[in-house]
Design a protein that fits this description.
Elements (H helix, E strand, L loop, with lengths): L1 E2 L7 E4 L17 E3 L17 E3 L7 E3 L2 E3 L12 E3 L2 E3 L12 E3 L2 E3 L17 E3 L9 H10 L3 H6 L11 H10 L2 H14 L7 H11 L1
Parallel strand pairs: 2-3, 3-4, 5-7, 6-8, 7-9, 8-10, 10-11
Antiparallel strand pairs: 1-2
Helix pairs in contact: 1-4
């Protein structure tokens, strides 16, 4: 058991129990855990970017606005878990058990669902994309997104860009579901100069804009 000091707040755990814990808002980027039990823990607003959580138990955990980006969840147990406004992008779901898991407005991108167990997205509001979708946006909005990405905190969070430096259209799609294009354009331009703290998930930008516009 120990800490990985390359990213603040993340951790390396093996063969331990962390039941009923509150991990809300944690940055678990590049964390590495094996065979750990997180039963009934709270992972709302958590990023799992580049993390490895293999053969772990997440029974009855909550994952509201959680982001799994390039995450390895091989062999983990998500039975009776709640996912709401969650994102799975390029995630390894080999042998992952989702029996009786609940999905609300969850997005899967570039993720092989066939390798998971007991995963059914039929008759839910879950969306599945084999590749990054294309969106037609105005030039003003495109410029506003690019400007927002110049903010050092936005740049560090990596919530608006793809790994090749382009605009993350999934994130933009979510933002446009929360704001009209004119308001979003204005808000993103404001973020470039005014957002001044670290954050880890897209949910922070949604909340920030709703509180400051």
């Amino acid at each position: 058991m120990g800490k990985n000091h390359s990213v603040r707040n993340n951790f390396v755990y093996n063969n331990i129990e962390k039941k009923g814990k509150n991990f809300m808002y944690k940055n678990l980027e590049r964390s590495n855990c094996y065979n750990c039990d997180f039963t009934r823990s709270n992972f709302d607003f958590v990023t799992f970017r580049g993390a490895h959580f293999k053969a772990c138990v997440f029974f009855e955990c909550t994952f509201k606005w959680a982001e799994f980006i390039g995450t390895n969840l091989k062999g983990s147990d998500f039975k009776n878990t709640i996912f709401e406004n969650a994102i799975f992008d390029s995630v390894n779901l080999d042998g992952v058990d989702f029996k009786d898991a609940e999905f609300k407005n969850t997005i899967f991108l570039s993720t092989d669902l066939t390798k998971a167990k007991n995963l059914s997205v039929k008759n839910t509001d879950t969306r599945v994309f084999s590749e990054m979708p294309e969106l037609e946006i105005s030039e003003d909005l495109r410029i506003a997104v690019v400007n927002a990405m110049k903010n050092k905190h936005v740049k560090a969070a990596r919530v608006l860009d793809t790994k090749d430096g382009g605009i993350n259209m999934i994130s933009l799609m979510i933002l446009l579901e929360n704001f009209d294009e004119k308001s979003l354009t204005s808000g993103l331009n404001m973020i470039q100069s005014e957002l001044d703290c670290d954050f880890y998930t897209l949910s922070y930008i949604v909340k920030y804009l709703k509180n400051n516009m």
